[in-house]
Design a protein that fits this description.
By secondary structure, the chain is of the alpha+beta class. 52% of the residues lie in helices and 18% in strands. It has an 8-stranded antiparallel β-sheet with strand order 1-2-8-7-6-5-4-3. Helix 2 packs antiparallel against helix 6 and helix 4 runs antiparallel to helix 5. The longest helix is centred in the first third of the chain and has 39 residues. The termini are far apart.
Length: 347
């Protein structure tokens, strides 16, 4: 009895330690999930979470579709008035009616398929036809060149907006409340502890984040970032860590008032069969001008979606091989190889 009591009394503290450890683990996971929810709604903090069902690209496409339907209906019903407002010479009513039918057809296609890039690209084709017709109208002496110039400028603006929307839909960009969310994941043949330590030392980030030039550590929570943006513009901002669970998760966000409103998490989870570590990066960028800003950034080669994925690939290369493959400095002496796909992947 005494021995049994002694063993039981000794096992009770051990069981208590295990229960406390299990309780702490549950609290950590709860905190991590809470952090992820906070980051996922970071871009929507000016609205109610979960109320946004459409992306800005989809809403913009649908708006362009309804605009096209309205414009086409007006051209179909009142071609003479439309010609006079646009500065076109009289006698083109059949052509204007045809243009109206084209506007309505593309508009209906966009409204019914607002997530389809093809529908918006069809509108871009129509814009090109309109621009060609308006340019040809300048050759007519009966045209009102003042009004025609205004109309041409308006069509050019609409064309740019159509191209931006079509491009964003083609790339699969999903902007909500001005923020672009990017998620990328890969398996790295290294332990969680090793990957966490390397990433947690933020001064290592410029080694695999292509557009990050420098990260200065202020303290355990705050850091100063320097990056290169569109048109090689230098961008700086301060960030702070909002969650740090050793060997599992690091979460950060830019400090209020920063030039770039950005938040993100990186998670380290064991791969199936303990074959390395699954590293998942989840980021949100709030770019100036929302959808248009994201498109402009993509035109300058600073597409956040592609950038995060390639940064994660370079992180894998560094951790597994100690270096990043590159085409720079080849014996041929050229800046790029003969394969643009390869260059895009490794630069």
């Amino acid at each position: 009895m005494n021995m049994r009591s002694s063993v039981q009394s000794k096992s009770e503290p051990a069981e208590g330690i295990r229960q406390a450890s299990r309780g702490k683990r549950i609290m950590d996971l709860t905190t991590s999930r809470s952090t992820l929810r906070q980051l996922h709604t970071h871009a929507a903090r000016n609205g109610e979470p979960g109320t946004v069902t459409q992306t800005q690209e989809e809403r913009l496409a649908k708006g362009l579709g309804w605009f096209g339907i309205g414009l086409g209906l007006m051209e179909l019903v009142a071609p003479h008035q439309c010609a006079r407002m646009a500065g076109l010479p009289s006698g083109h009513r059949p052509l204007i009616r045809v243009m109206g039918l084209r506007e309505m057809a593309s508009g209906f296609g966009i409204v019914t398929q607002s997530t389809s890039a093809a529908a918006v690209w069809s509108r871009v084709v129509g814009d090109m036809v309109d621009l060609a017709c308006l340019s040809a109208a300048f050759l007519s002496r009966r045209a009102d060149r003042s009004r025609l110039t205004t109309t041409l400028a308006a069509v050019v603006g609409a064309t740019v907006l159509d191209v931006v929307t079509a491009q964003q839909l083609s790339r699969g960009v999903k902007t909500r409340n001005g923020a672009v969310r990017v998620t990328a994941s890969t398996v790295i043949d290294r332990s969680r502890e090793e990957l966490y330590r390397f990433w947690r030392e933020f001064s290592n980030l410029p080694r695999f984040m292509k557009h990050v030039r420098q990260v200065d550590i202020h303290d355990e929570q705050r850091s100063h970032w320097v990056a290169i943006g569109p048109a090689e513009a230098r961008i700086e901002w301060d960030a702070q860590i909002i969650e740090d669970l050793p060997d599992e998760i690091i979460a950060w966000r830019s400090i209020d008032g920063a030039v770039i409103d950005q938040a993100g998490t990186v998670r380290f989870e064991p791969a199936i069969g303990n074959r390395g570590t699954v590293v998942t990066v989840d980021m949100e960028y709030r770019l100036p001008l929302g959808t248009v800003g994201a498109a402009v950034a993509a035109w300058f080669g600073k597409d956040p979606s592609q950038t995060v994925k390639m940064d994660l690939r370079r992180f894998k290369q560094i951790m597994e091989t100690g270096d990043v493959i590159t085409t720079k400095g080849q014996p041929a002496g050229r800046e790029e190889s003969t394969s643009w796909k390869y260059d895009r992947a490794v630069r």
